[in-house]
User: What shape does this take?
Amino acid sequence: MIAPDFLVFNTNGLYCRAGDFYLDPQQPVQRAVISHAHADHAVSGNQQVWCTRPTAAFMEHRYKKNAASTFHIKSYREQFTINGVIIYFLPAGHILGSAQIMLQHNGIRYLYTGDFKLQPDDTCEPAAFEPADVLITETTFADPQTSHPDVAQEMQKLNQHSHNILLGAYSLGKSQRLVSLLNTHCPQRQVLVHHSILPLHKLYESLGYPPGQYQPYNRKLMKEPGRGYVYLVPPVTFNSYFKAKSVMRIFASGWEHLQKQNDMALYLSDHADWNDILKAITEVSPKEVWTLHGDGRFLQQHFNSRLTIKIL
Assistant: This one.
């Protein structure tokens, strides 16, 4: 029987009562099972952390000695147990090392997606689903009006001119994906990378997922007009260059509000859109869907009484 309070939110985050541990806690805790290394899912200071090897590597890079007291590194589909709850990871396709978390207790299977995407990405493992009684899914873009555009068509926008580009993107995951996509769809452009992103590229390479061809930022090169350079920078640097001259300012994101006041919109998301979430529900075939990290009301309206949709 599905336990309605198997996962609950408290001041520390999403708590598993049966196993006395947290999924992606928002505050440091004794036991944390972490889906991926983005800062809104992986905080510093936890005592014991269960995660994939790339997630641990990224956390150690960001948090140094405060990453965790102890890491328990697990491969995809490698089972482990915390206080009687059987757990294993499945690829989420969000960034390198991102994991969905399958939890089994009293014969019931609960699948927590974390953040996931279904669009192809050469810089991380593709998402994979398994049947579960309960699907706990992110709903970042769970709106019938939201459909991510074709990635190749979006990238082709960058081939419509020869201007140098200041390209803003999140440092972990998005930046590595962009280097790969630029190499594939804009091979005539040379990619320059901000110094703060370079260590993450090196980590990707050491973990067997090289992003592609790039070089460290060279100020002299970016001053050469019309050469087609792309300078990949984190958000804080992108925002500080709001008066940049002789370059096109573009920010890669699925969020419409981040496209405003830029020279071109580049819609590139690392989250599932409406159709992707429906596909995940079909593949998992759950009896109930619990939603978080967004708005689950559209799913409630869509399924009506055909499927139980609970907003955590």
Q: What stands out?
A: Residues 7 and 16 are 5 Å apart (CA to CA). The mean pLDDT is 95. The chain has eight helices and 19 strands.
